[in-house]
Specification:
The chain has 106 residues and is an all-alpha fold. It has 3 helices and no strands.
C-alpha cells in the first residue's frame, strides 16, 4: 500500500509539473518578446548600459535554471542531442554576455 501511495504522489507531482512547466515557459517567452518590443526607439529612450545590465541578469538567471535542473552534467541527460542543444544555448548566452560587457566599456 505504501508503494501505491508513493506512486500516486509521484504521479501527482509529475502531472503538476507537466501542467505548470509549459505555462511558465510560455509566460517567460511572452515576457522576453515584450522586452524586445521596448527596442523601438520611436516610443522609448534608453541607454545601452541599461540593456546590457538587464540582459546580463536574464542570462545569469537562465544559467542558474540550467544548474538547478542539473543540466550541467551530461550524465543526467539521456539524449546526447538535447545535451548538445543545451550546451549550444549556454555557450551562445555566455558569448552574448561577453560581447555585452565589452561594448559596455566602449
Amino acid at each position: 500500500m505504501d508503494i501505491q501511495k508513493r506512486s500516486k504522489a509521484y504521479k501527482h507531482r509529475e502531472s503538476r509539473f507537466n501542467v505548470l512547466f509549459p505555462k511558465r515557459v510560455k509566460k517567460s517567452i511572452e515576457t522576453i518578446q515584450s522586452i524586445k518590443k521596448l527596442s523601438n526607439k520611436t516610443n522609448y529612450v534608453y541607454h545601452s548600459k541599461q540593456i546590457y545590465e538587464g540582459l546580463s541578469l536574464i542570462i545569469n538567471e537562465l544559467n542558474s535554471v540550467f544548474t538547478t535542473f542539473g543540466l550541467d552534467n551530461n550524465q543526467d541527460i539521456s539524449e546526447q542531442n538535447i545535451y548538445s542543444e543545451i550546451n549550444d544555448i549556454k555557450r551562445e548566452l555566455t558569448e552574448l554576455k561577453i560581447k555585452m560587457q565589452h561594448n559596455e566599456w566602449r
